[in-house]
Amino acid sequence: MGTSERNREAHVPEDSPSADSGTGSRAAGGTGSRAASTPRSLAEALRARDDASLGALLHARPDLLSPVPNDITQLAARAGTRASVVRALERLDRFTLQTAEALAVAPDPAPYATLLALLTGDEGDPETEAALPGALADLREQALVWGPDDRLRLVRTARELLAPSPTHPSPTGLGPTVAEATAGMSPGRIQEIVAAAGLPPTHDSVSAVAALTKLFTDRTRMSALLDEAPAEAHTVLGRLVWGPPYGEVTAHPSPPVRWLRDHGLLLPASTRTVVLPREAALHLRAGRAHRTTEPLPPTVTPAKEHRPQLVDANAAGQAVGALDAVEDLLKEVDQGGPAVLRAGGLSVRDLRRTATALDVPETVAAFWAELAYAAGLLASDGEADERYAPTPAYDDWLALPVQNRWARLATAWLTATRTAGLVGGQDSKGRTLSALGPDLDRSAAPEVRRRVLELLAGLPEGAAPDPDSLLARLRWERPARGGTGELRTRIARWTLTEAELLGVTGRGALSTHGRALLTPGPALGATAAGPRPTAARAARATQVESAAAALLVPHLPEPLDHVLLQADLTAVAPGPLQRPLAETLSVLADVESKGGATVYRFTPASVRRALDAGRAAADLHAFLGAHSRTPVPQPLTYLIDDVARRHGHLRIGAASAYVRCDDDSLLNEILADKRSQPLGLRRLAPTVVAAQTDPATLLDGLRSLGYAPAAESAEGDVLITRSDARRTPPRTAPAPVPEGPPVPDSTLLGAAVKAIRAGDLASTVVRREPAEAAGAGTGAGNGELPRTTSAETLATVQAAALTGSAVWIGYVNADGAASQRVIAPVRVEGGFVTAYDHTADEVRTYPLHRITGVAELADDPA
C-alpha cells in the first residue's frame, strides 16, 4: 500500500469501503448517537485525544515528528506506514506484543471480551486478566489500537504484519479462517464438506461457509464432531495445532487425513498443502491464541551476594587498572602508532602486538582501543602515511585527577554505539571486522548497556545477578525479532564483561560509583539518540561525571611518592604512584609485571631513553635517591653512569645523514664493524662519517649495534625526545550513530502538538460562507481555496482585525504553492495583513494580493 493510499485511509469513515477495518460495513444495530461518539477512523480517534495524550504518542514514537505533521490526518497516515509500525512493534514488551498478536487474529473490530478470551482461554488466567488493561493502554497510547472497548481495532499495517498468510505465518501459529481458506474453493466442494460435517445443505457458498464457521466455533458441537474422528486424526491435529498450521499431503492421503479433509478440519492451501483453519485450532487450544502468555516480566535473581564495601573496593581496583591499561595503550602509540588499514581500523597483526604489549587477550585489547577512541583520546593523524596517535585531548585527560579520568571513560563507554565485542567477527559480506574499523557501530548498544545497569541497580546492594535471568528479562522487554534479538543478547553479555573490566561493577555487582552513572536526566541516555548533544545535555553529562567521580574517591588507594629499589636492577611500586613519579619512572625503566605491586626494570635502553628525554645522569641519581625507600643499589648507579658516559659521543644529523664524533677511534670501530655495511657509511673527515640512509634509520641502526648515539639539529644542538612529541591534530570523539530519531524533550513536544492542532484547525474548521456568495460556489465549503474579490477580502480582514476574530484564508506563495490557513489579523496596512497564523503558530505578514479569498469561521478558535 502506497503513502497516498495510507493518507486516504487515515481519515476514511469506518462505514466506507476503504475504512481501516476493511469490512466495508458497520456493526448491526448501531444507533446515530453511537456513531457520533465512536471514532470512525484512526484520525478521528487521535483528534479526540487531549494534548497530553498526543504528546505521549509523539514521545513514544518520535519518528512521527520527522518532520512535524501538518495536521491530525497526516499524523494518522504517518502512524500507519509500514516503517513506523515495524519500529513501534519492535519496542513493545512481550505481553503487549502478544496482545497485538491476539488482536491480529481476532475479528475486526473485536470486543474486549473476545480479546480477553484469546489471551486467557477457557480456563482463565487472573494474572493475564489483570495485566491486559495496561497492555491495551500502551497499544492505544502508541496509536497501534484505536476504538472503544466494544470495538477494538488494530491498525491495518500491524494486522498485515502479525496476521497469518501463506507466505507470512502468524507469531501465534494460527492459520487462516474458514472463510479465507475456502475463498477459492468450488461451491460443490464446499457443499460436500458441509454435508460430511452433518450440516444441512445451503443455497450458496457464503451461507455454507458461515454454517461451517458457526460449527467450528460452537464448543459443544465441535467436541461431538471430533469425538467421531479416528484416533490417528487427533495425532495429526496435535502436530498442527500450535503451528505451523500447514502440512503436506500426497495424492492418496491416509484415512485419518482424508477424514479430516472431508470434514473441513483440513482445508486445501495448494495442490499438495493443507491448512488447519483458525476456528478449529482455537477450539483445540481451548480458546488460547498463544500456548503460554507472559503477563509479568521475569525476575532478575541474584547469583551471589557480597558486602557492598567489598564490591566498591574491588570495582575501584578495576577502575585503576582500566586507567593503567588505557595509558599503556596510548604510550605504545605515543611516538607513532600502527598504520591505518586502507579500509580503516587496525590490522590483525597490530592488534595482536598491542595485546602482547598490554599482556591481555586480543578481545580485551580491542576493548581498550575502542574505549580510548570513543573517549576521543586516540585517532588517526590524517597524514599521507596514516597512523594512529594520541589526540591533544589525551594530554588534557592525563592532567585530570584519577577519579575524573575514570568517569570520563565510563560515560564514553555507556553512551558509545561502537561495539568492541564485534571485533574479529564478520559483516554481511563476509569481511572481518577490525578494531577501530568503520563497521562497529550498533545503535542499540547504549540502550542495552544502560538497561543492563538499571537491572543491576534494582538488585540489593552487593548482589551479582544470575546472567540467564537477566537475559530472560531483557528478552521479555524486547522480544527477539529476527537478528536484532540475538544482537541485543550478545551486547548484554559483553556489557557484563566490559563493566567489570572498567570498574563499573565489582565481583559482578553494581558499585556505588557505577550506580551514579544512572542518575535520571537527559545526559547519558539521550546523547546517543542524536548526532550532537545539546548544551543542556553536555552540562548534565558533566554533572553525572562529577557525581560518579566523587563517589569513587573514598575507595581509591592513596598514591605513593616512593618505590623500593632492588639490587637486581628492579624497582617495586607497592601501590599506585603519584603522577610525576609514575611518568618519570615509566621513561627511566620498563614495566616488567603488574598486579598488587608494579615491578619496573632498568636496562641500558631505558636509561638511554631518559637521557634522550633531556635528563642528565646527575638528575637521575637525584631522582632515585629522593624517591627510594631503600638505598640506591650500586649496580644501578654504575648502569646510569656507564650509559651516560657513552651517550651523545656520536652525533647524527642530516646530510642525507652523518655521524660525527670527537673520538676518531670510535668511528674507526664502527667502520670496521661488518654489521654497519647496510648503513652505507663513508668517512669524510677524522671526526665525520657520512651515511646513505636517513637520520632516523641511522640512529636505530647504530643503537642496534650497541652504541648510544644522539640526534642533533641543523645548528648542532642535541635533540631531546619528549614523550608527547607525536599528537594528532585536534579531533572530536566519534558521534554515536542514533537508533532512529532522537526522543523529543517537553519543549519540542509542546510546540509540535500546538502546530498539529493549528494545522488540523485550518483543515477541519467549520467555515461560514458570505451570504452573497453562498450559492455561487466560493469554495469555502467544498474543500477548495475560498474565492472572494479583493474588496471583499480587504473588508473582511479589516473587520476581523477590529473585532479580534479569526478567519479562514486561501493563500498562494511566491512559488505558486496553495494552502489554507486560519489567521487572526492584527494590522492591515500598505497592502499587507499582519496576523497570528494558527497553522504555523506564529505571527506572519501576508501580501493581500496573494490571498485568493477569505471566509469567516463559525466559531472563533481562540
Summarize the SSE layout with pairings.
Elements: H1 3-11, H2 32-37, H3 42-47, H4 51-60, H5 72-79, H6 82-90, H7 94-105, H8 112-120, H9 126-141, E1 145-146, E2 153-154, H10 156-162, H11 178-181, H12 187-196, H13 205-217, H14 219-227, H15 231-240, E3 246-248, H16 255-262, E4 267-268, E5 273-275, H17 278-284, E6 302-305, H18 308-332, H19 348-358, H20 362-374, E7 378-380, E8 388-390, H21 392-398, H22 402-415, H23 445-457, E9 463-465, H24 467-477, H25 483-502, E10 505-506, E11 509-510, H26 512-516, H27 524-527, H28 535-552, E12 564-566, E13 570-573, H29 579-588, E14 590-593, E15 598-601, H30 604-612, H31 617-627, H32 634-646, E16 651-653, E17 657-660, H33 664-672, E18 682-685, E19 688-691, H34 695-704, E20 710-711, H35 746-764, E21 767-768, H36 790-803, E22 807-812, E23 818-829, E24 832-837, E25 842-847, E26 851-857
Task: Please describe what this structure looks like.
This protein has six domains: 3-162, no CATH class; 178-284, no CATH class; 302-555, no CATH class; 564-628, no CATH class; 651-711; 765-857, SH3 type barrels, CATH 2.30.30. It is built from 36 helices and 26 strands. Helix 23 (445-457) crosses helix 25 (483-502).
> Main beta sheet: strand number and arrangement?
6 strands, antiparallel
How many H/I helices?
Answer: 36
Shape summary: extended
Number of beta-strand segments? 26
Mean pLDDT: 84
Number of domains: 6
Sheet with the most strands: spatial strand order: 21-26-22-23-24-25
Classification by helices and strands: alpha+beta
Instruction: Give the helix proportion (percent range).
Output: 40-55%
What is the radius of gyration computed over CA atoms, rounded to a whole number of angstroms? Answer: 38 Å
For the termini, the CA-CA separation is 38 Å
β-strand percent reads 5-15%
Low confidence ranges: 1-36, 521-533, 770-783
- Oligomeric state as shown: single chain
